[in-house]
Amino acid sequence: MPVKCCFHRSNAGETMAWSESVDTVLANKEGLAAFRIFLKSEFSEENVEFWLACEDFKKTKSSTKIASKAQKIYSDFIQADAPKEINIDFHTKNDISENISEPTLSCFDAAQRSIYSLMAKDSFPRFLRSEVYKELVKKHQDRNQKRWLPFL
After folding, report:
1. In sequence order, which residues have a C-beta less than 8 Å from that of residue 105 and are 6 or more positions away?
2. Which residues fall within 8 angstroms of residue 124, CB to CB, at 6 or more apart?
3. From first to last of its 152 residues, what are the pLDDT tens digits of the chain?
């Protein structure tokens, strides 16, 4: 049984494991980077950016930072004509708009769930069929072969 090299960040097995769920991609630095490149090519990178902003927001402790981060997320992703406006239903958008003056750590949860679902059901399956993903898998397979054949 081959021994894993401790200097190798992400191996072919991990890359293949990304196909199991969008969570495995979002939790892996290289997987996330590849997914972002793919979403950018589809003009939908705002989805993962919003999801990441919400993950960061939920870790906020200071009430003043909660207010400022919530306003930033709102102005970047939610409000009409936002520079990175996400596609969410009217009801969710309206709820956020009505409550943004007194934000809570859960104020974006419904929108984040909606965007996560969109990524998981729509973007992620296309990512797995994309050249970005296929090239990454191939790169990792090639890297693994070379690592075990250093004298060839």
Report:
1. 57, 58, 60, 66
2. 21, 22, 25, 35
3. 343 333 334 455 666 667 788 999 999 898 899 999 999 999 999 999 999 999 999 999 998 999 999 999 999 999 999 999 999 999 999 999 999 999 999 999 999 999 999 999 999 999 999 999 998 888 877 766 555 445 44
Residues 89-99, buried b or exposed e (16+ Cβ, 10 A)?
eeebbeebeee
* One-letter amino acid for residue 100 of the chain: I
Q: What are the backbone angles phi and psi of residue 88, rounded to the nearest 5°?
A: -125, 160
What torsion, rounded to 10 degrees, do the Cα atoms 76, 79, 85, 90 define?
A: 150
Cβ–Cβ < 8 Å for 75, 67: no
